[in-house]
Amino acid sequence: MEDKGEIALRKLEQTKKEIDIKIDTYFKQLDSLFKLLFTLVYETRLVSAIAVKDSTITRYFLADKGVTNSQDYINYCSEHPMAKNYNEEIKLSQEILNDISSDAYKNPKNFLFMESKKQFREVEMNQIIVNRMKLMIKRLENLDGQENSIEELKKEIELTEKHIKKLFDEKIKLNKREDKDMITKKTEADKIIKDYLDKNKEGFIERYRYLPIYDITTHLEPYIKQLYWEAKELYWLGKYNACIIICCVVIEAILKDVIRTKEKKQSVKIDFEDVINHCKTKDYIDEIDKVWLVYVKDRFRNPYIHSRLEDIIPLIITPGVSIGGFNPDVQMISAKTMPVLRDIMKPDFDKEESLKLFKETHKFIKKISEKHFNYYNKNEKNEKK
After folding, report:
1. What does pTM read for this prediction?
2. Helix (H, G, I), strand (E, B), or coil: what is residue 331?
3. What is the pLDDT of residues 266-283, one digit of tens each?
4. For residue 88, what are the contacts with CB-CB under 8 A and spacing of at least 6?
């Protein structure tokens, strides 16, 4: 027979489970109710804003024009500052409703972000209302006997602006809470970084020794120089995959900079292949450069950015033994039959290829900068003439 204490304990656990299930159900129902109320508020506001806009602008139109020609009315509504104000509110209400029905809103992980976004939208909405009341005051000041209405509107503006300040303060608190949740303590961060540096110091030094010395003395735009140093630092930090990608970015960046400078363009909105062809057509690069750039595009840029392992490491053949199979002899295994070989080999491949690519990238941007941005030598030649 069971002990009475055990029976009581089992009943208690069963009761607890039932209560937990009910609580979970109630919370889900409550969450749905809140969402429904929130949706109702903004749908009502949206309908109300449209209705009030139409009736208000109709009155202004009749007062200002004294006619009811439909085309004049449409033109009047599109230009009137009050109509623009209402249109802003309608658009914002619709955006809020779209947010409420989105998957992002339903995901609990996005709570802080969505809450912050909601508060920002509320600030925008209240600011629109303040602007509208100011427009009303401006209009009433030109009419007789409207002093009381003006005073009431000013009080409403004061209250609304206080509410906006309160919303801003809440948003700051929310941001601080979010930041606090994401920040590592300084002492812990200090220890982690020191341990990491001590552990990897020899590797950093050894890899740095094989990198070319920065000897590009001609002009480079600050953001291109920053990309260059990022690629260099990524290699000696042992971040080979990232180094390869940034090398490709700096190559494209300097070519686009040449096009912008030579052709006095604000922006160059063409893809990398078109950039290469354009530069060759304009003689900004020679045939050797073009062949190398196409190789970089096909061998590194596109495969790495789109994570196409089969293009990065197309052929791998290595000796191996089948475990649990009928053939215990050493066989040649290819990545075609065992794709995981590419994952295993990629870090070593990236290490070797990233150094080669960085050295070639260094030579290329040095050549391009000397050819197109060596202003000192150009001025010197002009002086000799």
Report:
1. 0.52
2. strand
3. 889 899 999 999 999 999
4. 128
